[in-house]
Design brief:
This protein is of the alpha+beta class and 182 residues long. Helices cover 25% and strands 26% of the residues. It starts with a strand and ends with a strand. Bound molecules: zinc ion (ZN).
């Protein structure tokens, strides 16, 4: 089932999400609905708060970007209760966008390499070192679980420009091609 994606201004996007355990009701259905929703919206990552569930669950599939990159082609993950541990302080500036912030794309600084611990969809504990673009996507989705958005990381002159666009979303002046909820 395709779920509406919450847009900027919806308070759920600003809440710190709660951990879940394996007894969370209908978890498998929720995960498959999230994948369906993400693919329909042509996204590569989606966090549960973006569909109105304030829980620590995110999904990623960078497959569409993997034409000439095998690592991206196979990077499909479900992460439950993820914990980010950056072990390499090096950062990189990469342009990001977000299904909850249609029409905005900006460079933000992210760690090049992260160590992430999480539970997969079968509640098996995983520990993984992730590098490159996949690491950027994990950091972006992880931010959603903390109630943060990538535009929070934009500073300086760009901030003014971004704030204008955020106001347009809040005033419902956008109409993305996918199902949304203001
Ligand atoms: Zn996002």
């Amino acid at each position: 089932m395709i779920l509406p994606v919450l847009l900027y201004g919806n308070p759920v996007l600003r809440k710190k999400a709660n951990e879940i355990d394996k007894n969370y009701p209908e978890l498998n259905t929720l995960i498959s609905d999230m994948f369906e929703t993400m693919y329909k919206a042509e996204g590569i990552g989606l966090a549960a708060p973006q569909i109105g569930k304030s829980i620590r669950l995110l999904i990623i599939d960078t497959g569409v970007m993997g034409d000439d990159d095998d690592e991206l082609k196979d990077f499909r993950r479900v992460m439950i209760n993820p914990v980010l541990k950056s072990n390499i302080p090096d950062c990189v500036d990469v342009e990001e966008g977000c299904l909850s912030l249609p029409g905005i794309r900006e460079n933000v600084s992210r760690f090049k390499e992260i160590l992430v611990e999480y539970y997969d969809e079968n509640f098996e504990k995983k520990s993984e070192i992730i590098r490159g673009f996949s690491a950027i996507v994990v950091q972006h989705e992880f931010d959603h679980l903390e109630g943060k958005l990538f535009t929070d990381r934009v500073s300086g002159l760009k901030k003014h420009f971004v704030n204008k666009k955020l106001n347009d979303i809040r005033k419902q002046k956008v109409s993305p091609f996918y199902k949304v909820k203001f």
